[in-house]
Amino acid sequence: MSVFSRYILRLARKRWRIRAFRKRRDLASVVDRTSLIRPEGILLFSTLRNEKIRLPYFLEYYRDLGVNHFLIVDNDSTDGSREYLEMQPDVSLWTTAHSYKRARFGVDWLNYLQMKYAHGHWALVVDPDEFFVYPFCDTRPLRALTDWLDASSIKSFSAMLLDMYPKGPFDIQPYHEGQDPFEIAPYFDSGNYTISRNQRYGNLWIQGGPRARMFFDDLPERAPALNKIPLVKWDREYAYVSSTHMLLPRGLNLVYDEWGGEKASGCLLHAKFLDTFAVKAEEEMERRQHYANSHEYRAYRAAVSTQPDLWCKWSEKYINWRQLEILGLMSKGNWA
Amino acid sequence: MSVGIVMLCHTALDRAAEVARHWATRGCPVVIHVDKRVKRRPFDGLVRSLADLPNIRFSGRHACEWGTWGIVAATQEASTILLRDFPNVRHVYLASGSCLPLRPVDEMVAYLNERPRTDFIESVTTEDVGWTIGGLDVERFTLRFPFSWRKRRRLFDGYVKLQRRFGFRRRIPAGIIPHLGSQWWCLTRQTLSAILENPDRAEIDRYFRRVWIPDESYFQTMVRQVSANVESRSLTLSKFDFQGKPHIFYDDHLQLLRRSDCFVARKIWPHAGKLYKAFLSDDAGGQAAAEPNPGKIDRLFAKAVERRTKGRPGLYMQSRHPNENWENGRTAAPFSVFEGFSDVFENFETWLSKASGTRVHGHIFAPDRVHFAGGERVYNGSMSDSAAMRDYNPMSFLTNLIWNTRGERQCFQHGPNDNQALNWFMAGDPNAQISVISGAWAIPLFHSNANFSDIRKDAARLQKIEADFLHALRLPWVKARVRIWTLAEFIENPMEPLQTIVDEISPRSMRRLTEAPRLADLAGFGQFLQNLRNQGMQPVLMGDFPTGDGVKPNSSRRGRPYLVK
Fold it and tell me: Cβ of A193 and B326 within 8 Å?
């Protein structure tokens, strides 16, 4: 990589940070409990809109893993999400009615909050429908992972998005508050992911899974990206570039080994395809606030009207992280 | 006689206090050294929490930056105090704050009392390569290291390089033969005091002060001068990964640690409450006098290191994306590629899957869609049969297919009509078995009902594509198992090549092929080739196929030919 292109990336990073700093004015604090954050606390950042039904299980899941504080941006929810979050003792909440799209799909907001609160902390950035799974997550808390990453001088941890789906149409079984979504949607695609390298940022670009198979099989290049780097030992100089797919400085994107070995990695189980999906797709289409001209949601809406069944006879039923490890979707690396 | 513990702490002081209390209340005096960089308040907290125990001492504090002299100085001072204040002590055990005793203290004391003259210290000469994990070994003793490795890595590395380039050397003092080994040892009073009271100690210390990572060499070297009975192993179970940092034990290692029969383990995660609770309680139910046996743990960690350095062959995933030629196996398992066979034989796929007991696909790189075995629309791992998705990333497609079906050999058809993107990839893959009947693509043209000018154009195109493929297969770096026959050659004697291929695919079946696949009708094929020639298109890949109906290999016998041997 030439000095020149490194300099260009440096400028890009500065630009994203300045942009994030300017977008701070979008955010109005609802409740600020950040004084409770302890120096070694693990923080979770999230943006959401109308996800009330998911929140109880979401918070419970991450509290059990050992997240110490939640920093959440509520994008103008109308279903009581804000009021619910406000009451939680470990949540700091901001609200905004500004455009999700113009904040680059929430990245600017979270970049700002991370700049301000996450410096020196392990920060996990996930959506309310993403559930982080890592090696030994059934026996070791998140702190064991971050301690190990610290000891190994690893600054970022990759977790690929794994779309989970039910057998039959999405609305076959309604989801109720507090329920484990993977009781309803336990299936996933185990081996149809394509990987290529993004030379500019150094990250991998992963596509595939049920969404590519069902909605994008004629236009695979439009299929959504599944590579994610949600867990980072944050420094105020860092910036997410596009969702949590990639970061700057680009060294943080090197979460994969290039010489044949396996680095440790996890998965984000994606509970998108529940009965709430059709409503969501409709709403998001109307708001036109999603990536690439909401192309993704347009494809979904076209498909959803035909009651798609993502399940096929090769779908795997989720058991635990060890299963994902054996299937080669994640790896223990040298953590034993 | 009892065992004294020297304990070096720098973090998780509450856990260190628990362990120190465990030792002390069971009759083992403890001298604790706390890193100077630990703040005043936590240190005072530690002192206060252990104030009720008469056989605990604290030694003077040194700053213990990794790789520097501080740790040795701390050990020396703490050992001196221990030997001075507790005359009853025969063995001194060096432990860290994150060590955990795995067996009842009595068992350890008994074990050491049975071996009153033995010094347990790993001590390997630097000439025997391989103790260190990467980095320096004998150069630890001969170079100078004025720069901090932690904070000034570049300067550190640069200065090492500079010294190598110009051949700077420190003189190793006479009588010192450099030895290396784990820093956790257990020495007898005689040996330890001999090292500490060595008349030349000032000079030796001055030398070691500038040695790199002296805690892994000072006692290990000196013990060779004073001890007659060195048992070169550490009683502390401590495993290092490929970067040379210790593996950490968690709650889920409980059973493994129990069964290891080791006395002390390092390093324990400070929040592994279950481990601390289990091993610091007094349910003395251990088997008497079992020798430490860390074999299982060794294997577990060796496997982890292998996974990190070599990985699973043929796997491409979010945290393993090897550069070209670093794959350690481009694909996960052997597979077979057949070009031309399904043109020469009418029922090749079904025949092959019966004869070899494998999964036989059609043309998986066909332009219309992926022809999975049995016409499946979705295949193992939920792979789609969409040609667009396959062509979007053909390499991922193939490596996924082979990975998803590990344990079951895959065979598939290939041809010049198909996507050729992976020809080079397959040619360089030792897992690939590629068999080509060159020129067989002309048979479907011959049977087709197209206009001859179109056929001629097609033939020219296909011939060019196949010639390129054959060229790739004949390059010197090819690693695939390649077999090429011309059509004419093959037709003359089809069974022998088939037998070879099937034997290679399923070597254990060891049976002769009884049923041959059905040959396509080739009556008039020679004339067809001549017609192409007459039109100015020179078909070369078929070999010397005689014009006219001179050769009618088997083709007159339609139906089910059987081979009689």
Answer: no
